[in-house]
Amino acid sequence: MARRLALRVALSLLLVSGCSARPETSAPAAAYNAADVMYLQMGLAQIAEGEPVLALAEERAGEPRLRELVTELRGQWGEESGTMRRWLLGWQQPLTADPSAAHDGHGALHALRPADVAELRAAADFDRTAVNLLLGHLGNGVETARMGSASGSYPPARALADSQAQRRQAQIQRLLALAFP
């Protein structure tokens, strides 16, 4: 009898301790899907690929509007990558995609390569080359964001994807104005 009472008390304490007033700090496991994970991993990879272009443009761009856009991108990418990392780590997912599955389900988006950065570094017409690289890079970002928005299930990630697609499209329009004055 005493054993049953002790068991009931222990179970009651266990149940009560599970009901906490603390807010949940990470997303429930069921709230995201594989498309959310792929979108975030690809987004982080694209930001990392674009960083060398931004660094060179901060040093060498002559066009003030290009410099302004680069500063804007650096701030946005910093915020976005922090959010993406937090979600992936909270879900206990890797920050990078499995290389063998890197292009599953989203076509063959061209990634910025070290050769592209080397070409930019050596470019006589730096601004034009930087604009062209950023146009392609931001275009890929729009496609990745659309994939995340269309196929993801985690509402905050879908909202981030929608916001990214809109911002990247506006930034592409600004770059096109520089490319074709």
Automatic annotation (TrEMBL):
Residues 1-21 form the signal peptide. Keywords: Signal. InterPro entries: DUF305_CopM-like (IPR005183), Ferritin-like (IPR012347). Coiled coil: none annotated. The keyword Signal applies. Residues 54-177 form the DUF305 domain. Pfam families: DUF305 (PF03713). This is DUF305 domain-containing protein. It comes from Paractinoplanes rishiriensis.
